[in-house]
Amino acid sequence: MIQDNLAKITFTPDEVAALDGALATIEQVLEKKMVSLTPKQRRQYSRVRYNMENWVNKATGYIANNAELTPSFVDVGQLRLDMETHLMLNPRIDKMEVLLQGIKDTNLLLGSDIYNACISFYRSVKLASLGNTPSASAIYDDLKKQFSGGRKKAAEK
């Protein structure tokens, strides 16, 4: 069975350098501004995106115009700065998520192309090994280690 090449792309050295340069610039701008959370910490904090945006915008407007109702521990100036930065980051997050998903999808297809070519070779070598083709047995014995125990373990269960 002939496999279709699902992803027919390459990058020139100049394109790779441009990508690396752009990523380095993004890293340099963000390196002292980013916070890294553990998975547990990510679950514990509130999210303000999409369905919550309108409510937050409305509430911050009320906060700005109703100082007498705002708790003393709420720093209105810092809230304003947080909101400005949050709103600035949102479209950039969206753009980066789209780009990242495209990169992941492309890499998935490339990996599938690679795997399909390799598994076709593996099956061909297996058949050649069964036919005592010189050197095929050594190659097959080496490559089959990747799949050792797969069917045996499933049969034992």
Order of helices and strands: HHHHHH
Backbone shape: elongated
Mean pLDDT: 90
What oligomeric state do these chains adopt? single chain
Please, how many helices? 6
Distance between the termini: 32 Å
Q: What is the helical fraction, as a range of percent?
A: 55-70%
Biggest β-sheet: count, sense, barrel? Answer: none
Which class do the helix and strand fractions yield? mainly alpha
Short note summarizing the structure:
With 157 residues, the protein is mainly α. Helices cover 68% and strands 0% of the residues.
Tell me about this structure:
- The chain has 157 residues and is an all-alpha fold.
- 68% of the residues lie in helices and 0% in strands.
- It contains 6 helices and no strands.
- Helix 4 packs antiparallel against helix 5.
- The chain is elongated, with a radius of gyration of 27 Å.
What key phrases describe this protein's structure?
6 helices; 68% helix; 157 residues
SSE layout and pairing:
Layout: H1 13-30, H2 39-44, H3 53-65, H4 76-130, H5 136-143, H6 150-156
